[in-house]
Amino acid sequence: MKPVIVVHGGAGRIFKEREQGSRDGVVRAALRGYGILKQGGSALDAVEEAVRSMEDDPHFNAGCGSVLNEKGEVEMDAIIMDGKNLDSGAVSAVKCIANPIKLARLVMEKTKHMLLTDHGAHLFAQAMGIPETPGEKLITERSRERWKKNLEADSNPEEFQKDLGTVGAVAIDSEGNVACATSTGGLSNKLVGRVGDTACIGSGGYADNHSGATSTTGHGESIMKVVLARLILYHMEQGMSPEMAADTALDYMKARVGGLGGVIVVNNSGEWAARFSTKQMSWATVKDDQLHYGIYAGERHTKSVDEALASGSGGF
């Protein structure tokens, strides 16, 4: 099996001045994940590395750069799933952790549980020796400005929710195993303790070697209502291609509950798709040593991996 990785940096609206940073960020993440796959590494390691790369990038609403809740704090959700045995680990409403995806993986591998939240997740992180990152270090000037603006009497938080920025990755490795990972700071000015789709298995992501893997982004409550990730894999199990399965599920979510979003998909044959019903979604993929990436519908740039690395787009 030839390895494939696909990543997204969130569906919604990407402001003009942030487009290049979003493109660079997803390209860097895809190349890092592909570097692991190229050396014979697992899909699980590849998606974790790709997402960690984007959590460290303030252009995205995950890790450093996460949006703030109503109290002006960062609360993050993340999930990771192994398609080989359907094992999954997730964390929700976590604070003061630079890389929630790393903690989600530890939940999967070091506990009998699948999801830890808030204080319990914090205690588990301490037990696992994960260093605490002061909350202030995760807050960017942009997130703080947006939070303040949403507090104004005449503000419309819905307008800012379109710029969502959740991050995710899916991959298939040379053994034919698939995996997914998704991480987010959630919705700006959300209620304290709000958990969206990201931490929910079948909504924020799903991976099964029998069909493939997907990671979702968009309006979390809508995604949960239709269990979007699992719905896409169901359509693939009925014989649809990744692209058709993604479009069918996104169309259903829009028609049924009025929700917009985006998805990345890889099936167990290595076919992939990056589809969205929002205005934009930053995405990148590497297959057969070819990098593809874009932000707008119909936009697709292609470079060889060597060319991308030579231009300083991040790397192995």
Automatic annotation (TrEMBL):
Its EC number is 3.4.19.5, 3.5.1.1. Transmembrane segments: none annotated. It catalyses: L-asparagine + H2O = L-aspartate + NH4(+); Cleavage of a beta-linked Asp residue from the N-terminus of a polypeptide. CDD domains: ASRGL1_like. The keyword Flavoprotein does not apply. The record marks 165-166 as: Cleavage. Substrate binds at residues 194-197, 217-220. One of its GO terms (biological process) is L-asparagine catabolic process via L-aspartate. Keywords: Autocatalytic cleavage, Hydrolase, Protease. The keyword tRNA processing does not apply. GO terms for cellular component: cytoplasm. The active site is at 166 (nucleophile). Belongs to the Ntn-hydrolase family. This is Isoaspartyl peptidase/L-asparaginase. It comes from Strigops habroptila.
